[in-house]
Amino acid sequence: MVKILLLGLSGDSGCQVAALGLHDKLVKILTANELVYAPTLIDAKEIPEKIDVAIIEGGLRTEHEIEVIKKIRSNSSIMIAIGSCACFGGIPGLANLKEGKILLNKIYVEQKGTALGQLPLVDKLLPEQVPIHNSVKVDYTIPGCPPEVGDIANTLVSLLSGNQPPINMTDVCEKCPRERVGTYANKLIRIHEDVSDPQRCLLEQGFLCMGPATMGGCGAPCPSAGMPCDGCRGPTIQNSDQGLTMLDALTSLISQVKDGFDLSQNVGVLYRYTYPDSNLVKLFKGGEKNE
Ligand code: SF4
Ligand code: SF4
User: Is residue 216 a contact partner of residue 223, using CB atoms and an 8 Å limit?
Assistant: First the structure.
């Protein structure tokens, strides 16, 4: 019987809820194994000494969370990061564009609707939101926002039966049904600004679709439904920096956009889920932050 720990850091729990989509498979996993610690599901106060598989959701934002993750790591045989916050820092990682103190003040003091205008009592904040692999070794990742149920099932079922989980080598474009003809629009379009050709590749029409830079395996549901992929599954196996890969894919489009392409206006598109994990950002670390 495998001892499983399930923990959401930074108050996260959505990716754990995504696991409910496993339906009867989840029941089988939970009855054949032992859930030893899972604050969202069971009342267990202490982190157990012996854990076979630790499944961690959410990124690291406080010093206390680093202490917790280190303790779990030293007590666990296998650690899995689930969801893009745990894997790459996720959308909360875009907060790294600003100083933590400035953010806290803006949210809790300067907002007119904030009661009393006082900062909340919080554990000591880290200077930035970071993925868990910044502090501990991670053995497997299940990216996505939220992660695909099929990925959760494949990883857990493989590991619990002593096998290696499959590795996805594709990008989102590989399963996208939209037609690519190799020519690009001469302007960038936001999804609310124009009606897209329902058959044609969104990137070729000028929409910033992150498909070429994003790990496949989801079946491309967003571009299939008319929305550009926003990159929730993080980088492909072949290219570790999602934003840089996308800039490379955008070369043909940008060269035709007459009004230019402002990188600073598109950080939240290129690195929506992976800003804290970006090689480009690490290169410029120490630079000035926005106020
Ligand atoms: S860029 Fe987007 S729309 Fe075009 S093929 Fe890739 S996933 Fe589909
Ligand atoms: S198409 Fe892109 S945004 Fe949509 S689920 Fe797949 S990776 Fe995530």
Answer: no
